[in-house]
Batch of 4 targets.
Target 1
Amino acid sequence: MRHRKRGRVLGRSPSHRKALLKNLASALILTERNAEDEEAPPKVKGRIVTTLHKAKEVRPLIEKCVTIARDSLADIEVASEHGTESPRNSAEWKQWRKSERWSKWPAAMAPAVEARRRLNRLLGDKQAVKILVTEIAPRFKDRHGGYTRIVRLAKPRLGDAGTRAVIEFVGVRDRKVEKSQRPSFGEEETAQSAS
C-alpha cells in the first residue's frame, strides 16, 4: 500500500530519482545562459521538453529554488551597502578592509552565502546556481510563486509513446490579452446620415 507516500517513483531507485530531478532542474536553469558559442545551444531559452510525469515531479524543486534565490536578493542588497567594488588587494580594497564597513560586511553577506550553498545542495551545479541568482531571481522579484508552467504536447514520444510536456519559466513568452474591437454594423453610418 502507498499510504502517505507522496511523489512518483518514475521507475528508479531513490538516489537515481534524486539525481534525475537535480539534472532536470539544472538543465532548465542552464538554458537561460548565453550559449551562442557552444556547439549545441538550447533551441528556446528557459524551456525543456521531457515527459509529463517528470515535469510534474521536478516543478516543486524548481519553484523552491527560485523562491530561495528570490529571497536572497534582499540579503545581497544589504551586503552590497557594506561591500566594495574595487579589485582584491588594491589600495582601495585594503583601505576598505581596515574600515568599519568591513566589520559589518561578513555578517550582512552570510545569509546570501547560505542561500547559495543551499541552492548548490539542491541543484548540484554551481553554474546553474549563479544563473539562478543573477538572471532568473531578479525577473521574479515581485512574483510570489508560480514561476513555471507545464504544457502537454500532442505528439507522444517515439519508442514508448510516453506523454511529452514542456516545462518553462513564465513571463517571457506569455500571451498578451487584448480587447477586440467592437464590430460596427453600419449603425453609426445610418445615424449620421439621418441627422
Target 2
Amino acid sequence: MTFEDVTAQAGPDLQVQEPYRGAVIGDLFNSGKMDIVVTVLNGKARILRNVTSNANNWVTFQLVGTKGNRMAIGAQLKVTTEDGNSQYDIVSTSAGLAASRDRRPHFGLGPCKAVKQVEVRWPSGVRQGLRDLPADQIHRIVEP
C-alpha cells in the first residue's frame, strides 16, 4: 500500500513542464479506462489517453433523472461486488476551478466479473436497487 513515482516510464507527455491549472479524470473513449484532461495556463488543454492493458474489470453508470433533475446530480450510488466489497460515489460534475468531470460514476471491480447489487438514492428521495449486472459495460439507469 505505497505509491511509486512512475512518471519517467509514463512517456514523453508526462515529462513536459507547463503551468497546469486543472485536471479532470473520466472515461473519454468509453473504454472503461480513465483518461485525464489537463488545462495549461495560456495554452491548449492536453488529453492523456489511457492505453494501458490489464485484466481488471469495471462498470460505469449513466443515470437519468425523471423528477426534475434530469442529469441526476446528487444521486448517491452504492455498488457491491461478488466478493462482498462495497464502493460509493455521488453523481457530480464538480472537479475544481474551471473544470468539469464526467458525471457518470465509474467503479473499478478488479477481478470481479459482475456487480452483485447497485443501490441508487435519487435526489428526489426515491431509492432503487438493481442486481446482477455484468462488468465492463456502461449501464443506463432511469429513475422510477
Target 3
Amino acid sequence: MKRLLFASFLLISPWSLALAQDSVQVRRLIEANNQRFLAAFNRGDAAVITSMYTRDALLLPPNSPIIGNHQGIRTYWQSLINAGVKAVELKTSTLEACGNTAYEVGQYTLTIPKAGGGTITDYGKYVVVWKREGRRWRLAVDSFGTNMPAVP
C-alpha cells in the first residue's frame, strides 16, 4: 500500500509542478499583456488595444450596453482616449488558468479630466476572461466598473 501511494505521489508530483510552472508563465504573459494595453492606451493607440481582443470578444463597460465587435471596442477605447483619460493603472489580484482559458480579477485606477479644469481619480475593479489563441493570450470578455458613488 505504501509503495502504491509513493508511486502515485511520484506520478502526480511532476504534473503538479508542471501546472504550477504553467500558471506562473500564464501570469507573466497576461501581466505583460496588461503592460502592452496600458502603453497603447497612453500612446492613444486604440487599434493596438483592439488587436488584443479575440474576434468574438465582449466588452462590458459601466453604464453602457455590451459591445460585441472590434469596431465597437475600438470606438469605445478611442472615446476614452479622446476624453483625456490618463494615468491608468491595473493591479491583478487573482489570476487562474485552466488550459486555453484564464480569468483575471483586479483593480484599476485612472485619472479623468473634469469639465472646467482639474481631474478626478476613479478607482474600480475588473474581471477579464482570457483565451489563448496560438501563443498569444487575448481578452475574450472584459468587464469593469467604478467603486465611486453614482453622481445624481
Target 4
Amino acid sequence: MISSPARRHMERALAAKAAASTAPDQLMDGTGIYEQMLLQLANDRGRLKQIQSTEGKAKLKADLLPAYDSYIEGVLEAGRGAADEVITTVMLWNIDAGRYPEALRVAAYALQHDLPMPDRFERTTGCLVAEEVAEAALVALRTRTEFDAAVIDQAIALTDGQDMPDQVRAKLLLARGRWVLRSANDENPPTEQQLIIAVESLKRALTLHEACGGKKDLEHAERFLKKHTASQPTG
C-alpha cells in the first residue's frame, strides 16, 4: 500500500524526534515509530522467507523498501547514532536491490556512528558494505550488466579505516581495477589518472591477498598505462 504524503511526513517527523531523543549508547527500542518499523520488518522478512530465488528476493526488497524511506529520512536527519536494526537492515536490502546510492547514504550514517549489524550477521558493518559492493561489481563484470563504477569508489572511501579481513579489502580494490580496465578500449579509453589508480589499486589488492586473482589485471593495467604515457607529447 502506498502511503499518503501526510503519513510520510508524520513518519519522518516521528522518526526524527525519536532519533534525536535517543542517546548513542542507547537502543531505539521503546519509541513508537521504531517499534512500528520493527513490526513492518518482521512481516517483510516473513514474505522474503517464502521466496527461494535470490533474484526474486531482490525484486521483492525493491518493492518493500519505499515503505521505510520516511523513517530513514527522519533518522538520518536528526539521529545521534543510537543502535537501530531498521537502519542497518534497510542499508543491506538497498544493496541487494541494487539501490546503491541510497545504500551508501545510509551506510555513511551507520559507519559514522559505528552502528553494529544485527546479531545474526557475523560481519561488521564496514566489512559487509565493502564485500557486498565488491561482489555486486564483480558479478556485473562477469555478466556484462550495467553498474556505476563510482559506487566502488564511494564504498572504498566510506570503508577506509574500517576493520575487515584483508581478502575483503582486496576484493573491493580488485573490482575498482577491473572496472577501469573494462573501459580500456579505443572508443572510451580511461584517462592516465584512472589507469594510475587502477594500477595502485591492483597492487594493493595483491599485497593484501596474493590469490585475489588480480595478477593478469595488473599486467594489463600497467601495459595500458605505459602505452598511454608513450602516446603523450613530450615537448
